[in-house]
């Protein structure tokens, strides 16, 4: 087995119409500079087999030799778990990805590490009343689908009518969170690789309470202090992640952790600085093999 051979697994859903907007060639080039040989694979073309002969992986209906490492750019947790059982080093691990994909798991893990965040409530009872929740969380309530990223599946209810309409139309399990008015339309995204902050940006939106770049927000280079760096790194470690994007809110008195993304995009960094996130990722992978 070639020790420096790896896969990068994406979902076909992430492919952009304009080839120039995809990072595939960039990722392969930066991996090569780090002394790594990588292939791009798509999770939709991967089949997993468990039989009396053991665990196997098919790619495009053919058996494929497993690599030394895999960089996951999709939340394909079952694939990650099979690779790990076959002895493949994954970035991030299946457990860490599961912790970040499920927002409730994220908040549970942050809480036991005493990391500050907005007050959050989960219930399997979707008929919970606005009156009950507003007593806990305030008049304005953030409603989030438990699984989601890029600001998708996140809603703001400012009245009972809006709350009931959102609850009626959301299909997934959801959690409820207090609305941080002082951070409306702005947050900080901090990129952490190997317990080290490599970049940070301030994201803003004048049109939406969400500041995500993918939701039409703007991004600006932003310097953070050692206190914010510590929060970002500790949040990453709490979930078991090695590569993460930590989203921070401006609370009235302190910085609060909103979410921790296990497969962070890096378009905002590319647009606002000369920091090369793929280079940072592959240099880290190379150092840990």
Q: If you had to describe this structure to a student in words, what would you say it looks like?
A:
The protein has 3 domains: 87 residues, Rossmann fold, CATH 3.40.50.20; 61 residues, ATP-grasp fold, A domain (Dna Ligase, domain 1); 107 residues, D-amino Acid Aminotransferase, Chain A, domain 1 (2-Layer Sandwich), CATH 3.30.470. 30% of the residues lie in helices and 29% in strands. It contains 9 helices and 16 strands. Strands 14-13-12-15-16 form a 5-stranded antiparallel sheet. Strands 2-1-6-7 form a 4-stranded parallel sheet, sandwiched between helices. Strand 12 and strand 13 form a beta hairpin. 37% of the residues are buried.
State the gist of this model.
InterPro entries: ATP-grasp, ATP-grasp_RimK-type, ATP_grasp_subdomain_1, Rp_bS6_RimK/Lys_biosynth_LsyX. The radius of gyration is 20 Å and the shape is globular.
Question: What attributes does this structure have?
Answer:
alpha+beta; four-stranded parallel β-sheet; Rossmann fold; ATP-grasp_RimK-type; ATP_grasp_subdomain_1; ATP-binding; single chain; Dna Ligase, domain 1; ATP binding; 289 residues; 30% helix; five-stranded antiparallel β-sheet
């Amino acid at each position: 087995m070639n020790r420096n051979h790896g896969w990068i697994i994406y979902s076909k859903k992430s492919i952009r119409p304009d080839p120039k907007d995809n990072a595939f060639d960039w990722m392969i080039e930066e991996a090569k500079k780090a002394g790594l040989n990588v292939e791009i694979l798509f999770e939709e073309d991967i089949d997993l087999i468990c039989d009396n002969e053991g665990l196997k992986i098919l790619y495009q209906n053919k058996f494929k030799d497993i690599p030394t490492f895999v960089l996951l750019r999709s939340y394909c947790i079952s694939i990650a778990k099979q690779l790990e059982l076959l002895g493949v080093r994954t970035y991030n691990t299946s457990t860490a990805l599961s912790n970040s994909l499920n927002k409730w798991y994220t908040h549970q893990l942050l809480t036991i590490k005493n990391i500050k965040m907005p007050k959050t409530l989960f219930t399997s009872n979707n008929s919970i009343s606005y009156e009950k929740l507003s007593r806990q969380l305030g008049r304005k309530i953030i409603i989030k689908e438990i699984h989601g990223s890029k600001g998708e599946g996140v809603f703001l209810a400012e009245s009972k009518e809006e709350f009931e309409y959102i609850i009626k139309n959301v299909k997934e399990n959801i959690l409820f969170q207090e609305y941080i008015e002082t951070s409306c339309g702005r947050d900080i995204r901090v990129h952490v690789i190997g317990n080290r902050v490599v970049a940070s940006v301030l994201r803003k939106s004048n049109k939406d309470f969400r500041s995500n770049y993918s939701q039409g927000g703007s991004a600006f280079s932003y310097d953070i202090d050692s206190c914010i760096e510590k929060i970002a790194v500790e949040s990453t470690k709490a979930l078991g992640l090695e590569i993460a994007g930590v989203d921070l809110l401006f609370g009235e008195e302190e910085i609060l952790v909103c979410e921790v993304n296990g497969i962070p995009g890096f378009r905002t960094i590319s647009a606002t600085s000369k920091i090369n996130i793929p280079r940072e990722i592959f240099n880290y992978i190379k150092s840990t093999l």
